[in-house]
């Protein structure tokens, strides 16, 4: 399906434009997001059957099936990914991967680079999204209750043990919520506690800002290019809980600098927000 383009304020619809060309940005946005949700729901139901038939239940191996399906979604929305640094995922053994989180569309960027044997940490509410909840469950996503620090901490410390025992990488969105402002929110510390508890490296992944083609506030959603950079692993061997804040700050600065560079944002803007 070609990427539907809205008619934006200030530009009259041309006679050659079809019905999609005359749609207001709001309708265009709603249609495209609606289509994305339907695509996720339908593909999740089909992928769930495939996961059950091939792997028999909840396992990280299902992520290969989910990844293969989601990687086709970009063509429906005219999105292109330019990926650098994939070799940085080739660390021996488990690792914590941290990345910026802008939108529900991030699932496409996630699957574009997702290494094998990698599960994500997600909010528990995702489980109740029908077939999408089912596929996320089958893929082995670790569910946390963000409203209860103590229960989230308990889940994370269990993960610290199992990820090492089972040689699994864990993908965390350290902002803890979606943020499509072109900047980073302050990082939560769970991912960094986890990395230090498990004594595994942190691998930052940065996606360029979506704001040039996607903005829910202004109802913008067109085709676009997303630059992705997998940064070199940051070692945590020998670090203790006292080092969590330093590690968090270090990852935050590196990722923010990379985000601005990839998004073509002038460096003097770094300090302004
Ligand atoms: C086929 C079609 C498919 C369709 C499609 C499929 C897609 C298939 C992929 C799905 C993919 C899903 C993707 C989901 C994406 C999200 O759901 S993002 C939202 C959920 N994820 C997160 O929230 C992760 C990030 N959050 C954290 O890490 C947070 O720290 C926690 C663990 C939730 C705790 O929350 P908090 O209490 O608000 O956070 P924070 O202020 O950091 O911590 C409070 C205190 O506890 C301490 N603390 C935190 N964690 C710990 C810890 N582990 N140990 C000890 N102390 C700790 C902190 O140090 C802090 O203490 P101080 O240092 O201030 O003294
Ligand atoms: C029977 C129930 C039917 C429910 C229908 C639900 C329809 C939604 C269908 C598809 C949407 C595709 C979503 C793919 C997964 C997105 C993961 C995600 O991006 O979650 C947001 C979470 O990181 C942070 O949440 P907040 O920004 O704090 O909020």
UniProtKB/TrEMBL annotation:
Which pathway? Phospholipid metabolism; CDP-diacylglycerol biosynthesis; CDP-diacylglycerol from sn-glycerol 3-phosphate: step 2/3
Q: Which UniProt keywords apply?
A: Acyltransferase, Lipid biosynthesis, Lipid metabolism, Membrane, Phospholipid biosynthesis, Phospholipid metabolism, Transferase, Transmembrane, Transmembrane helix
Domain Phospholipid/glycerol acyltransferase, by residue range, is 95-210
Substrates-to-products reaction catalysed? (11Z)-octadecenoyl-CoA + 1-(9Z-octadecenoyl)-sn-glycero-3-phosphate = 1-(9Z)-octadecenoyl-2-(11Z)-octadecenoyl-sn-glycero-3-phosphate + CoA; 1-(9Z-octadecenoyl)-sn-glycero-3-phosphate + (9Z)-octadecenoyl-CoA = 1,2-di-(9Z-octadecenoyl)-sn-glycero-3-phosphate + CoA; 1-hexadecanoyl-sn-glycero-3-phosphate + (9Z)-octadecenoyl-CoA = 1-hexadecanoyl-2-(9Z-octadecenoyl)-sn-glycero-3-phosphate + CoA; 1-(9Z-octadecenoyl)-sn-glycero-3-phosphate + (9Z,12Z)-octadecadienoyl-CoA = 1-(9Z)-octadecenoyl-2-(9Z,12Z)-octadecadienoyl-sn-glycero-3-phosphate + CoA
An example GO BP is:
phosphatidic acid biosynthetic process
Which InterPro entries has this protein been placed in? AGP_acyltrans (IPR004552), Plipid/glycerol_acylTrfase (IPR002123)
Query: EC number(s) of the enzyme?
Result: 2.3.1.51
The entry lists its GO molecular-function terms as: 1-acylglycerol-3-phosphate O-acyltransferase activity
Q: Quote the biased-composition stretches of kind Low complexity, using this chain's numbering.
A: 9-20
GO cellular-component terms in the record? endoplasmic reticulum; membrane
Q: Name one Pfam family in it.
A: Acyltransferase
**Disordered: where is this region?**
1-20
Residue ranges spanning the membrane: these are: 33-54, 126-144
Q: What does the UniProt record say this protein does? A: Converts 1-acyl-sn-glycerol-3-phosphate (lysophosphatidic acid or LPA) into 1,2-diacyl-sn-glycerol-3-phosphate (phosphatidic acid or PA) by incorporating an acyl moiety at the sn-2 position of the glycerol backbone.
Similarity comment? Belongs to the 1-acyl-sn-glycerol-3-phosphate acyltransferase family.
NCBIfam families xref list: AGP_acyltrn
> What is recorded about the domains?
The HXXXXD motif is essential for acyltransferase activity and may constitute the binding site for the phosphate moiety of the glycerol-3-phosphate.
What name goes with this protein? 1-acyl-sn-glycerol-3-phosphate acyltransferase
Q: Which organism is it from?
A: Catharus ustulatus
